[in-house]
Amino acid sequence: MNDLSQASLNAFQLLFSGNDDLWEVISLSFGVSFSAILIATPFALVIAFILAFFQFPFRRTLISLFNTFMSVPAVIIGLTLYLILSRSGPLGDLRLLFTSKAMVIGQIMLSFPLLVAMAHASFQSADRRAWETAITLGAAPSRAFFTLMYEVRFGLIAAIVAGFGRVVAEIGCSMMVGGNILHSTRNIPTAIALETSKGEFAQGIALGMVLLVLSLSLNAGVSIFQGKGELQA
Amino acid sequence: MSSLIDYKNISIFLSGHSVLNIDHLAVPAHQCTLLTGKNGSGKTTLLKIMSGLLKPNSCTVHYQGLDLPWKQAKPYIQKDIIYLHQQPYLFDASVADNIAYGLYRAGESKSAAHHKVMQALDWANLTHLAHRSAKQLSGGEKQRVAVTRARILSPRLLLLDEPTASMDSDAKQQTCLLLQRLKSEGVSIMLSSHETHIIEHIADRHLHLENGSLKHIKQATTSGKVTSLNTIKNTP
Ligand SMILES: Nc1ncnc2c1ncn2[C@@H]1O[C@H](COP(=O)(O)OP(=O)(O)OP(=O)(O)O)[C@@H](O)[C@H]1O
Ligand SMILES: [Mg+2]
Predict the structure, then answer these.
(1) Which residues contact B217 (CB under 8 A, 6 or more apart)?
(2) Gap from A20 CA to chain B (nearest CA, Å)
(3) pTM for the whole structure
(4) A137 and B102 in contact by Cβ < 8 A?
């Protein structure tokens, strides 16, 4: 118990004394996850919109597919991506394995189904009249799309925040395709696992606190935005 | 009487059922046409096809000297025809921003747009609502904002789906007043309604939708008054 409280105290010191290694890990985590969400979101929004507003064959199947893929465990995605990116894999020549780019790709794969499914639900809840009104008032389809996104913005923001929350905290995929290399692919979750296994509890707790605060605030953010969306309706 | 636009052979199937089957629908210029029909008779469907929002199974459009299939006519009709929902949809923005929405397409400068919006608000006696959030308006106010938002784009034909449904008599009167003004400005109007007694004094013509086709037309006489005895079959 004494050890633990001492470790926690040290954790605070580490965080606020500006320990370089610690903050490098934190900024890498953010960088990778932001990039992944930034790349995934535009595609996910367009797909979600098309799924919600147009009729075409296999639409239902696609929707259930995205919903199903939401629950694929991160390590499975990590494993798949590992096999694809490894030397003998189909994309082995790209030499991406154990780079932060591989982590970004993994997190894109991880967040994509969630983004599509949640954005689809938002667009589904949007009023068809919003789209028709924009069109009849002379908006080009692209502008009508932006208008519609604005109308359901709270739901969409909730989707993006939830997507970020999922990837920033996941460990399985980052560990497999990133490899937890210091100064290069070590992010918060993989660092926590490593430091703790080495007995460096202070480091682990410090990062754990950052991640916990982040996850809690992201989750709070999701429900706040979803609540706003409901008030709107 | 010259018609603004003609629709021929309109047919549409929804979930396998034939909803509309109309040989010929002529919309006269500068007039107001009343469209009646029971619930589910296809009024909304017809107005949406006419405005280019709903794709029919077949339809040719005669407009501005061109005979085009509906799909090719769509850009032209969307440019000049505006459809207003039974319960108009106002965007999550202020009343003034809602009215300005369509001006974007015309490439108006900001100050010119602002000026037009202020004029339009004045035209509709809505100036006091300019900065209110559109989502908070009453049904009647929303309808008038929607009419104003359409008018500012100078459409040639305005299609209104039951514009006076679920309104109190005051709101009905104000909406009718705006429609009357629009008509006197030369905008052609077609509106569906169950409340013939309210619309009748604006309407020059009366079409009735039954079993998917337009059955009766009460034509306008030369004086513009409706003669209800003058019933003509709409089949050529
Ligand atoms: N998307 C759709 N899919 C299947 N059937 C539809 C669809 N939209 C409308 N219908 C059917 O088409 C018919 C005409 O509907 P429409 O809404 O045009 O009637 P309406 O005259 O406007 O009725 P109301 O007076 O109630 O507004 C109805 O039988 C309706 O059930
Ligand atoms: Mg209707």
Answers:
(1) B205, B206, B207, B208, B231, B232, B234
(2) 46
(3) 0.89
(4) yes
Q: Do B89 and A129 touch (CB under 8 A)?
A: yes
Which CATH superfamily is B3-90+155-228 part of? P-loop containing nucleotide triphosphate hydrolases (3.40.50.300)
Nearest atom in ligand 1 to the alpha carbon of residue B45 is: 18
Q: What does the domain layout of chain B look like in residue ranges?
A: 3-90+155-228, 92-136
Quote the CA–CA distance of A64 and A70 in Å, as a whole number. Answer: 10
Question: pLDDT of A136-167, one tens digit each?
Answer: 999 999 999 999 999 999 999 999 999 999 99
* Domains of chain A: residue spans and CATH: 14-225 (1.10.3720.10)
**How confident is the model over B161-195, as pLDDT tens digits?**
999 887 888 888 888 999 999 999 999 999 999 88
Q: Long-range contacts of range B217-220, CB-CB < 8 Å, 24 or more positions apart?
A: B220/B31
Please identify, by atom number, the ligand 1 atom nearest to the C-alpha of residue B86.
27
Residue whose pair of structure tokens reads 């208008």 in the numeric block: A147
Task: Report CA(B210)–ligand 1 centroid distance (Å).
Answer: 13
Q: How far is B233 from chain A (nearest CA, A)?
A: 31
